[in-house]
Amino acid sequence: MLDSLSFLWQKCDVGVRLLKVYGDTPCPVLPEDIDGEPLTEIGAYCFADKPPVAGGTMTPCACTDASRLHPICGNFVESVRLPDAVHLLDSAAFYNCRQLQRVEIGPGIDALGSDLFTNCRSLACISVRCAPDAPTGLRKLLGSISADVEVEFLDAQGTVTAKLFYPEYFEYLDENTPAHIFNHSIEGEGYRYRQCFRDGIVQFTEYDADFPQACIGESAENLCHIALGRLRWPFALSAEARARYSEFLTGHLLDACKPLIAARDLEGLRFLRGLDGLLPEEMTKVAEACGAAGFGPGAALFVAGRHTSRRKTYSFDDL
Questions:
Q1: CA angle, 6 as apex, 77 and 47 as ends, to 5°?
Q2: Dihedral angle computed from the Cα positions of residues 61, 63, 69 and 72, in that order, rounded to the nearest 10 degrees
Q3: What is the rounded distance in angstroms from the CA atom of residue 165 to the CA atom of residue 246?
Q4: Residue (of 277, 318, 268) closest to 297 by Cα position
Q5: pLDDT digit string (tens) for 292-302?
Q6: Which of 8, 41, 138, 276 has CB 3.0 to 4.6 Å from 17, enough for a Cys bridge?
Q7: Average confidence score pLDDT of the chain
């Protein structure tokens, strides 16, 4: 894929600053180095639909059809994989990338500009290539995303080792007009979840401890998203938290299954089907929802074993 990309870049204090990417893929995988220098910075408005700054150097592309190359920016971008050496994302780097769904990063991001993901309304996932208990720049990155977003940690083989869902939150400034005093208020449990870090490391115990409070104000859909992610990838999950999440999912089975049905996630449904304490009437609702969506394998999963068969007994009156 790198052969089909070209880059506009400039030297920075350490390594290279990327100004623009050209190619024909909506999912570019950026190289570890450009012209022998490590790629360490993503420049301002790099993926925004805006002309690049002057003074950059253009790399040649191995692609034989140069007519296929165009700026990978704006609504064309769907996902971006950044190399490990990147430590800075400059202001508005993904401004107005409305179709951007996923960004994959290394653990070393430590500096962010402003308005980084403004109007990135489809952004659903941040993937981090490191162990879940390693220090990262994730807290800073989450601070620039107030909307719902999922974080997944990937090992060296690209396998998911942990998933955390961070719900949306809102910040308000209310003016006390006569006194010209502004009161800062925050609504939504997403802000509380984003504080569960220490020295750049996710504190899973604190994250799990926030769930009872989240149950007061968050939607059942968001709560199911949190619970299911922790149970399917139970990194540092205590027995107490496991029981709490399981109890919630069994009590909100249809809410938990709806997004999985829409995504045709049979493995997710199979996981939920394996929880203890599922009620037959709730399983029937899930089977019906699968049927209505035309998802036969999912329906079959919740129909199978729903009724417990009993051996018929006979008395002398039957003879």
A1: 30
A2: -70
A3: 16
A4: 268
A5: 999 999 999 99
A6: 41
A7: 90
